[in-house]
Write a sequence for this structure.
């Protein structure tokens, strides 16, 4: 009998610390599936910084490094340059990537660093108390925006579309935005991740997959409500799909040694 579904080798079988309804667990699962399918478990390294992403090393059964908050692209740059035959995954949340680490990610992308960033966008600071993030939507409530994000009167600015921002840089080769709110989007997001990992292993340049994810705890919703809110509010502002694709169409997918 053919096995159609099994636990990924690259993902440990332990109880999760993530909140009920959080999207991180699903994202971990599809990353691990792709790593297994590409045969890269022994050559995969994840860099996961401060934030909810700091738990990632508990779940992935391959090497990990925990950089300082916002400095994940710098750490990934050093690792990938020293170990170019390894799969280096820069795993960041929106506060880490789009706030304290903005300069890091922009310059890494501009230099065409050959690692892949997995950017988890749940439009809020998750671990530190639900503060407003650079990706928080206009009108969305946060502990530092109790009346909702006001870009004009309160001087809070507008939500940043990171993929579109990075698309203007010559060093970015592949940028896509997925979501984990339903099975259709989960499958599409997995395909984006696979495409980015293959491009990285071919050495094509900077790749990033932004993933819209639920945060029921800090959105103050139950898991079902958070899925509905993401579909109604986040996807219209952060449209899904491949934002930039300048990859070599003639190159064959990388194979594990």
């Amino acid at each position: 009998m053919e096995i159609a579904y099994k636990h990924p080798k690259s993902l440990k079988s332990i109880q999760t610390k993530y909140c009920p309804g959080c999207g991180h667990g699903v994202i971990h699962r599809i990353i691990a599936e792709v790593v297994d399918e590409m045969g890269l478990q022994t050559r995969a390294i994840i860099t996961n910084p401060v934030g909810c992403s700091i738990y990632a090393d508990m779940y992935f059964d391959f090497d990990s490094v925990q950089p300082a908050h916002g400095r994940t692209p710098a750490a990934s740059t050093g690792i990938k340059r020293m170990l170019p035959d390894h799969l280096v995954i820069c795993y960041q949340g929106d506060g880490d990537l789009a706030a304290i680490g903005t300069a890091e990610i922009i310059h890494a992308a501009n230099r065409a660093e050959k690692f892949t960033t997995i950017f988890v966008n749940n439009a809020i600071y998750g671990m530190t108390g639900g503060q407003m993030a650079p990706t928080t939507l206009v009108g969305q409530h946060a502990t530092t925006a109790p009346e909702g994000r006001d870009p004009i009167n309160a001087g809070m600015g507008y939500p940043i579309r990171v993929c579109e921002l990075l698309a203007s840089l010559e060093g970015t080769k592949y940028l896509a935005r997925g979501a984990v709110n339903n099975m259709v989007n989960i499958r599409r997001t997995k395909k984006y991740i696979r495409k980015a990992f293959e491009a990285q292993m071919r050495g094509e340049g900077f790749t990033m997959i932004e993933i819209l994810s639920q945060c029921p705890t800090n959105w103050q919703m139950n898991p079902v409500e958070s899925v509905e809110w993401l579909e109604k509010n986040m996807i219209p502002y952060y449209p899904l799909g491949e934002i930039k694709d300048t990859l070599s169409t003639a190159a064959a997918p990388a194979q594990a040694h």
About this structure: The CA atoms of residues 30 and 190 lie 6 Å apart. Residues 24-245 form a domain with the Rossmann fold fold (CATH 3.40.50.970). The two ends are 29 Å apart (CA to CA).
